[in-house]
Structures are given as C-alpha cells and as structure tokens.
Amino acid sequence: MPEIRFAGYGGQGIIRSGIIVGKAVSIYDNKFGTMSQSFGPEARGGACSSQLVVADSKVLYPYITVSDILVAMSQEGYEKFEPELSENGVLLMDEDLVKPKPQRGQIKVFAIPATRFAEQLGRKIVANVVMLGFFTAVTDVVSYDAMKKTIPSTVPEKAVDLNLQAFDTGYEYGKKRMENA
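Predicted structure:
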C-alpha cells in the first residue's frame, strides 16, 4: 500500500498529478485510492502538495503517515517533505529544480529534467505530466495503459496531444533509467 506525496509549488500541476494518478489506479487498474491536497494562500508560487494512498483493498486511513514515494518538483517541497520519506523510500525529483542533501537510510533517488523536457516540448506547464510518465516507469504504482487512458479526461481538450507526448517523454526516460539501474 504505497503512500505517495507530490510536492512543489502552485502552478506546477501538483494537485492535478495526484488527481490523475488517483483516477488511473481507481478506474483502470482496479485498485483503491484516496487523494488529499494542501496548499498555501497563494494561488501560484506557494508551496503545495497532494497525497495519495493506493491499495489493493479498501483504504482504511486516507492520509499519509510516512511517504513511501516522494515526487519533488521544487526545493521547498523537497525540504519540507523529505523528512517524512521512509528510510527505504523512493525519491523522484526534477533535477534542475531540486538539489538534494546527502541521503539517509536506503532511499533510492531517481532524477529527471522534467521542466527542461517540458520546455523542449514548447510548454513548461506540462512538466508535471513529464514527471508522471517518469513516475509510471520507475514505480509499480500505476500502469502505463491506465495513465494513457486517464490523461485525456483530466487535461484541457486542446492540450491532450501535448500532454500525452509529455507523458511518453517522461516514461521513455524512466524506462531507460531503469534499464541502467
């Protein structure tokens, strides 16, 4: 039953990331998922996070106690939530935005230049979806097919193709990373 936290700042799609994974696991992967979110008073630029608990049976407690997976898309998000990451958890981070401190325990770190890839695709705003592709490839939380089915219903219609391309960019990068791990 992985407990997952997406952390970053307002405007990066952190809340939407939790919604997308939550819908994908619940609707298409036949798992149970709960999602909650928190954000500061600022609409854009303030710290925010979404928390997701995924299980094969009903989730009895919908909030994270200790994160198994931390997806950090900002330095502030990393610094705030890394202490809550399990000693043998998984850290996924945007390597251009997060500079991690020396790791404790057996934490596995996987980095991707998500924002840089999004900029290369022409829209920085899809960095979260690049990260979701990477997340899908690196973890066993959600299937590729479930994510590909969910993304079109959770992003603006005019941006579906770009978001699917962003997802595949992150996914392919993650698959290559895992082959070399």
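Summary: The chain has one domain: 3-179.
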